[in-house]
Specification:
Strand content: 15-25%
Radius of gyration: 20 Å
Distance between the termini: 17 Å
Shape: globular
Structural class: alpha/beta
Protein backbone atom coordinates (compact mmCIF):
# COMPACT_ATOMS: atom_id res chain seq x y z
CA UNK A 1 0.00 0.00 0.00
CA UNK A 2 1.25 3.48 -0.86
CA UNK A 3 2.54 5.83 1.79
CA UNK A 4 0.19 8.67 2.76
CA UNK A 5 0.75 11.95 0.98
CA UNK A 6 0.59 15.43 2.41
CA UNK A 7 -2.55 15.82 4.52
CA UNK A 8 -3.35 12.09 4.41
CA UNK A 9 -3.35 9.18 6.84
CA UNK A 10 -3.27 5.47 6.10
CA UNK A 11 -5.83 3.29 7.85
CA UNK A 12 -5.69 -0.41 8.54
CA UNK A 13 -9.39 -1.02 8.36
CA UNK A 14 -11.28 -3.06 10.93
CA UNK A 15 -14.82 -2.55 9.60
CA UNK A 16 -16.47 -1.14 6.47
CA UNK A 17 -20.04 0.12 6.35
CA UNK A 18 -22.34 -1.11 3.57
CA UNK A 19 -24.97 1.44 2.55
CA UNK A 20 -27.69 1.33 -0.07
CA UNK A 21 -25.99 4.09 -2.04
CA UNK A 22 -23.13 1.62 -2.65
CA UNK A 23 -25.50 -0.50 -4.74
CA UNK A 24 -26.39 2.54 -6.84
CA UNK A 25 -22.74 3.17 -7.64
CA UNK A 26 -22.24 -0.53 -8.41
CA UNK A 27 -25.22 -0.65 -10.79
CA UNK A 28 -24.35 2.60 -12.53
CA UNK A 29 -27.50 4.35 -11.32
CA UNK A 30 -25.10 6.86 -9.76
CA UNK A 31 -22.13 7.46 -12.08
CA UNK A 32 -18.61 7.05 -10.78
CA UNK A 33 -16.25 9.90 -11.70
CA UNK A 34 -13.44 7.55 -12.74
CA UNK A 35 -12.98 3.87 -13.48
CA UNK A 36 -11.73 1.55 -12.17
CA UNK A 37 -13.03 2.56 -8.75
CA UNK A 38 -13.26 1.14 -5.25
CA UNK A 39 -16.79 1.23 -3.84
CA UNK A 40 -17.86 2.20 -0.35
CA UNK A 41 -17.59 5.39 1.63
CA UNK A 42 -17.77 4.49 5.33
CA UNK A 43 -15.39 2.67 7.61
CA UNK A 44 -13.34 2.53 10.77
CA UNK A 45 -9.90 1.33 11.72
CA UNK A 46 -6.47 2.15 13.09
CA UNK A 47 -4.07 4.72 11.67
CA UNK A 48 -0.76 3.04 10.75
CA UNK A 49 0.96 5.90 8.90
CA UNK A 50 0.64 9.68 8.84
CA UNK A 51 1.60 12.01 6.00
CA UNK A 52 3.27 15.38 6.12
CA UNK A 53 1.29 18.27 7.52
CA UNK A 54 -0.93 16.11 9.75
CA UNK A 55 -0.54 17.03 13.39
CA UNK A 56 -3.94 16.20 14.90
CA UNK A 57 -3.81 12.44 14.23
CA UNK A 58 -1.13 9.97 15.28
CA UNK A 59 -0.17 6.40 14.44
CA UNK A 60 -2.28 4.08 16.58
CA UNK A 61 -5.32 6.36 16.72
CA UNK A 62 -8.70 4.79 15.99
CA UNK A 63 -10.69 6.78 13.46
CA UNK A 64 -13.79 6.48 11.33
CA UNK A 65 -15.20 8.33 8.34
CA UNK A 66 -18.66 8.72 6.88
CA UNK A 67 -18.33 9.41 3.17
CA UNK A 68 -14.94 9.08 1.54
CA UNK A 69 -14.92 6.86 -1.58
CA UNK A 70 -12.63 3.84 -1.56
CA UNK A 71 -13.77 2.01 1.57
CA UNK A 72 -13.93 -1.56 0.26
CA UNK A 73 -10.29 -2.34 1.06
CA UNK A 74 -8.21 -3.79 3.88
CA UNK A 75 -5.97 -0.71 3.94
CA UNK A 76 -6.67 2.70 2.50
CA UNK A 77 -5.51 6.29 2.32
CA UNK A 78 -7.79 8.97 3.73
CA UNK A 79 -7.69 12.73 3.92
CA UNK A 80 -6.97 13.67 7.52
CA UNK A 81 -9.81 16.19 7.38
CA UNK A 82 -12.26 13.29 6.88
CA UNK A 83 -10.97 11.25 9.81
CA UNK A 84 -13.20 11.27 12.88
CA UNK A 85 -11.58 10.27 16.20
CA UNK A 86 -13.52 7.38 17.74
CA UNK A 87 -14.29 7.16 21.46
CA UNK A 88 -12.74 4.21 23.28
CA UNK A 89 -16.12 2.69 24.11
CA UNK A 90 -17.37 2.57 20.50
CA UNK A 91 -16.25 -0.51 18.59
CA UNK A 92 -15.15 -0.26 14.98
CA UNK A 93 -18.03 -2.40 13.67
CA UNK A 94 -20.56 -0.23 15.47
CA UNK A 95 -18.84 2.93 14.22
CA UNK A 96 -18.85 1.68 10.63
CA UNK A 97 -22.59 1.12 10.83
CA UNK A 98 -23.35 4.35 12.67
CA UNK A 99 -21.47 7.29 11.16
CA UNK A 100 -23.06 7.78 7.73
CA UNK A 101 -26.63 7.17 8.87
CA UNK A 102 -26.18 8.97 12.17
CA UNK A 103 -24.61 12.09 10.67
CA UNK A 104 -27.37 12.15 8.06
CA UNK A 105 -29.94 12.05 10.86
CA UNK A 106 -28.05 14.78 12.74
CA UNK A 107 -28.17 17.09 9.72
CA UNK A 108 -31.92 16.59 9.34
CA UNK A 109 -32.71 17.18 13.02
CA UNK A 110 -30.35 20.09 13.59
CA UNK A 111 -29.99 21.84 10.23
CA UNK A 112 -32.90 21.03 7.87
CA UNK A 113 -35.51 21.44 10.60
CA UNK A 114 -34.40 22.04 14.18
CA UNK A 115 -36.83 19.79 16.03
CA UNK A 116 -38.45 21.31 19.12
CA UNK A 117 -40.34 19.71 21.99
CA UNK A 118 -44.01 19.17 21.22
CA UNK A 119 -43.63 19.31 17.43
CA UNK A 120 -45.26 16.62 15.32
CA UNK A 121 -42.69 14.77 13.23
CA UNK A 122 -43.48 12.10 10.62
CA UNK A 123 -40.63 9.76 9.68
CA UNK A 124 -41.19 7.35 6.82
CA UNK A 125 -38.80 4.41 6.53
CA UNK A 126 -38.15 4.43 10.27
CA UNK A 127 -36.90 0.84 10.28
CA UNK A 128 -34.18 1.58 7.72
CA UNK A 129 -30.63 2.77 8.33
CA UNK A 130 -31.20 6.52 8.64
CA UNK A 131 -34.78 6.29 9.89
CA UNK A 132 -33.93 3.93 12.74
CA UNK A 133 -31.69 6.67 14.18
CA UNK A 134 -33.67 9.73 13.12
CA UNK A 135 -37.03 8.63 14.58
CA UNK A 136 -35.91 7.82 18.16
CA UNK A 137 -33.56 10.80 18.18
CA UNK A 138 -36.40 13.17 17.25
CA UNK A 139 -38.53 11.61 19.97
CA UNK A 140 -35.70 12.11 22.48
CA UNK A 141 -35.66 15.81 21.50
CA UNK A 142 -39.27 16.01 22.65
CA UNK A 143 -41.15 15.61 19.38
CA UNK A 144 -44.28 13.55 18.87
CA UNK A 145 -42.92 11.11 16.30
CA UNK A 146 -45.31 9.19 14.05
CA UNK A 147 -43.94 6.49 11.74
CA UNK A 148 -45.94 4.88 8.93
CA UNK A 149 -44.81 1.36 8.03
CA UNK A 150 -45.62 -0.80 5.02
CA UNK A 151 -47.64 -3.54 6.77
CA UNK A 152 -48.86 -4.93 10.07
CA UNK A 153 -45.80 -7.17 10.11
CA UNK A 154 -43.52 -4.12 10.25
CA UNK A 155 -45.20 -2.49 13.24
CA UNK A 156 -43.17 -4.47 15.75
CA UNK A 157 -39.87 -3.48 14.14
CA UNK A 158 -40.76 0.21 14.44
CA UNK A 159 -41.98 -0.17 18.00
CA UNK A 160 -38.71 -1.90 18.91
CA UNK A 161 -37.01 1.46 18.24
CA UNK A 162 -39.01 2.93 21.12
CA UNK A 163 -41.22 5.03 18.83
CA UNK A 164 -44.62 5.43 20.46
CA UNK A 165 -46.80 6.14 17.43
CA UNK A 166 -46.62 3.55 14.65
CA UNK A 167 -49.27 3.28 11.93
CA UNK A 168 -49.74 1.24 8.77
CA UNK A 169 -49.46 3.27 5.58
CA UNK A 170 -52.44 3.48 3.23
CA UNK A 171 -55.04 2.73 5.92
CA UNK A 172 -55.95 6.26 6.99
CA UNK A 173 -54.26 5.70 10.35
CA UNK A 174 -51.61 8.34 9.73
CA UNK A 175 -54.15 11.13 9.23
CA UNK A 176 -56.03 10.08 12.38
CA UNK A 177 -52.87 9.89 14.47
CA UNK A 178 -51.67 13.30 13.30
CA UNK A 179 -55.08 14.86 13.89
CA UNK A 180 -55.17 13.44 17.40
CA UNK A 181 -51.77 15.00 18.11
CA UNK A 182 -52.41 18.47 16.70
CA UNK A 183 -53.15 20.59 13.64
CA UNK A 184 -50.74 18.78 11.35
CA UNK A 185 -47.17 17.60 11.11
CA UNK A 186 -44.50 20.26 11.43
CA UNK A 187 -42.06 18.22 9.36
CA UNK A 188 -42.05 15.06 7.28
CA UNK A 189 -38.71 13.31 6.85
CA UNK A 190 -39.37 11.15 3.80
CA UNK A 191 -37.00 8.24 3.22
CA UNK A 192 -39.41 6.02 1.28
CA UNK A 193 -40.85 7.97 -1.62
CA UNK A 194 -43.88 6.86 -3.58
CA UNK A 195 -45.35 4.26 -1.20
CA UNK A 196 -45.86 6.66 1.71
CA UNK A 197 -45.34 10.07 0.11
CA UNK A 198 -48.90 11.18 -0.56
CA UNK A 199 -50.32 10.31 2.86
CA UNK A 200 -47.32 11.91 4.53
CA UNK A 201 -47.65 15.13 2.55
CA UNK A 202 -51.36 15.29 3.31
CA UNK A 203 -50.51 15.10 7.01
CA UNK A 204 -48.34 18.26 6.88
CA UNK A 205 -49.67 21.46 8.37
CA UNK A 206 -49.76 24.65 6.32
CA UNK A 207 -46.24 26.04 6.36
CA UNK A 208 -44.65 22.71 7.32
CA UNK A 209 -41.42 21.24 6.01
CA UNK A 210 -41.13 18.32 3.60
CA UNK A 211 -37.60 16.93 3.66
CA UNK A 212 -36.96 14.60 0.73
CA UNK A 213 -34.20 12.19 1.75
CA UNK A 214 -34.75 8.92 -0.10
CA UNK A 215 -36.93 7.14 -2.65
CA UNK A 216 -36.66 3.49 -1.67
CA UNK A 217 -40.11 2.70 -3.14
CA UNK A 218 -39.74 4.91 -6.21
CA UNK A 219 -39.77 8.59 -7.07
CA UNK A 220 -43.17 10.19 -6.32
CA UNK A 221 -44.98 12.65 -8.55
CA UNK A 222 -44.67 15.98 -6.77
CA UNK A 223 -47.37 18.61 -7.31
CA UNK A 224 -45.22 21.68 -6.73
CA UNK A 225 -48.11 24.13 -7.14
CA UNK A 226 -50.21 22.34 -4.51
CA UNK A 227 -47.32 22.41 -2.08
CA UNK A 228 -46.75 26.08 -2.80
CA UNK A 229 -50.40 26.90 -2.09
CA UNK A 230 -49.99 25.28 1.32
CA UNK A 231 -46.68 27.10 1.82
CA UNK A 232 -44.89 23.78 2.27
CA UNK A 233 -41.14 24.19 2.39
CA UNK A 234 -39.53 21.43 0.31
CA UNK A 235 -35.90 20.57 0.99
CA UNK A 236 -33.40 18.24 -0.69
CA UNK A 237 -29.82 18.05 0.52
CA UNK A 238 -26.88 15.75 1.06
CA UNK A 239 -25.30 15.00 4.40
CA UNK A 240 -22.21 16.94 3.39
CA UNK A 241 -24.28 20.09 2.93
CA UNK A 242 -24.79 20.16 6.70
CA UNK A 243 -21.16 19.41 7.59
CA UNK A 244 -19.36 22.18 5.70
CA UNK A 245 -16.17 22.20 7.78
CA UNK A 246 -14.19 20.01 10.16
CA UNK A 247 -15.39 21.82 13.28
CA UNK A 248 -19.01 21.05 12.40
CA UNK A 249 -18.15 17.45 11.51
CA UNK A 250 -16.49 16.91 14.88
CA UNK A 251 -19.34 18.59 16.79
CA UNK A 252 -21.96 16.52 14.96
CA UNK A 253 -19.95 13.37 15.63
CA UNK A 254 -19.74 14.17 19.34
CA UNK A 255 -23.52 14.71 19.44
CA UNK A 256 -24.00 11.37 17.68
CA UNK A 257 -21.65 9.50 20.02
CA UNK A 258 -23.39 11.05 23.02
CA UNK A 259 -26.80 9.94 21.75
CA UNK A 260 -25.47 6.43 21.14
CA UNK A 261 -23.90 6.32 24.61
CA UNK A 262 -27.16 7.45 26.23
CA UNK A 263 -29.00 4.55 24.60
CA UNK A 264 -31.27 6.73 22.48
CA UNK A 265 -30.97 4.31 19.55
CA UNK A 266 -31.64 1.19 21.61
CA UNK A 267 -29.89 -2.06 20.81
CA UNK A 268 -28.51 -1.93 17.28
CA UNK A 269 -27.75 -5.19 15.53
CA UNK A 270 -24.81 -5.59 13.18
CA UNK A 271 -24.39 -8.38 10.65
CA UNK A 272 -20.85 -8.90 9.41
CA UNK A 273 -19.55 -10.37 6.16
CA UNK A 274 -15.94 -11.00 5.15
CA UNK A 275 -14.76 -8.46 2.59
CA UNK A 276 -14.45 -11.32 0.08
CA UNK A 277 -18.23 -11.92 0.45
CA UNK A 278 -19.23 -8.39 -0.57
CA UNK A 279 -21.52 -9.77 -3.30
CA UNK A 280 -23.58 -11.64 -0.71
CA UNK A 281 -23.65 -8.54 1.49
CA UNK A 282 -25.08 -6.46 -1.35
CA UNK A 283 -27.63 -9.15 -2.15
CA UNK A 284 -28.79 -9.23 1.47
CA UNK A 285 -29.03 -5.44 1.57
CA UNK A 286 -31.05 -5.22 -1.64
CA UNK A 287 -33.36 -8.06 -0.59
CA UNK A 288 -34.00 -6.45 2.78
CA UNK A 289 -33.58 -9.80 4.50
CA UNK A 290 -31.80 -8.44 7.56
CA UNK A 291 -32.90 -5.92 10.17
CA UNK A 292 -29.25 -5.54 11.16
CA UNK A 293 -26.79 -3.03 9.76
CA UNK A 294 -24.43 -4.74 7.32
CA UNK A 295 -20.69 -4.39 7.83
CA UNK A 296 -17.73 -5.87 5.99
CA UNK A 297 -14.64 -7.00 7.88
CA UNK A 298 -11.23 -7.87 6.41
CA UNK A 299 -10.74 -11.56 5.73
CA UNK A 300 -8.66 -13.42 8.26
CA UNK A 301 -5.22 -14.37 7.05
Amino acid sequence: MAEPGTGQVRIRQQAIGVNFVDTYFRSGAFPLPTLPAVLGGEGAGVVDAVGAGVDSISVGDRVGYYFSPGAYAETRLLSATDAIPLPHDLGSEEAASLLANGLTAWGRLHRVHAVKPGEIVVVTGATGGVGSLLAPWAQHLGAIVITPVASDERVGAAQALGVKHVVVAGTGQLAKEVSAAGAGADVVYDLVGRATFYDAVAALRVGGTLDLIGTASGVPDIDASALERRRIRVTRSSTGDHLPDRATLLQASEDLFRAWREGIFGTRLTRTYPLSKVVQAHQALEAGISEAAIVLVPDKA
